[in-house]
Design a protein that fits this description.
With about 130 residues, the protein is mainly alpha-helical. The chain is built from 6 helices and 2 strands. It has a two-stranded antiparallel ribbon with strand order 1-2. Helix 1 crosses helix 5. It is globular and about 55 Å long.
Length: about 130
């Protein structure tokens, strides 16, 4: 039996139903589910593309869930903003697997060691970037 070929539409439905397939129809997706999908596809990398980027664009809709047509506008705007190849991003999202097929780390806090600067590196600059008025 051949496995059905993934499409961007079928992936949208699968991620829209993520963790709540009984209650959710798959017609609309939340920002959280969208970010999970983008993270599983390694599009959100917390460097070039962040959850802040997706949140700003998503919140332009003024609602907690968007449908597929709105999502296509969303992903197009994200690609334009971040200078990403839309066709390649759609292909990546189509082929990243169903939700949960590969591990997704959802960071709760920025990793301290990603931005850590030694005390020596901070010398010469004001302490922790705070300037004191004299």
């Amino acid at each position: 039996m051949d496995e059905e070929q993934a499409t961007i539409d079928s992936q949208f439905v699968a991620y829209a139903k993520l963790f709540d397939s009984k209650k959710r129809s798959g017609e609309t997706i939340t920002l959280w589910n969208n970010d999970y999908w983008l993270r599983q596809a390694n599009i959100i990398d917390d460097r070039k593309v962040t959850m802040t980027d997706t949140g700003i664009i998503f919140n332009k809709y003024g609602k907690s869930e968007i449908d597929f047509d709105e999502w296509m506008v969303f992903i197009t705007e994200l690609c334009e903003l971040k200078k990403l190849d839309l066709e390649k991003i759609i292909e990546t999202l189509t082929n990243c697997g169903l939700p949960g097929e590969s591990p997704v780390e959802i960071p709760q806090y920025r990793n301290f060691f990603l931005t850590f600067k030694s005390k020596n590196a901070l010398e010469g600059s004001s302490s922790m970037g705070v300037t004191k008025n004299k």
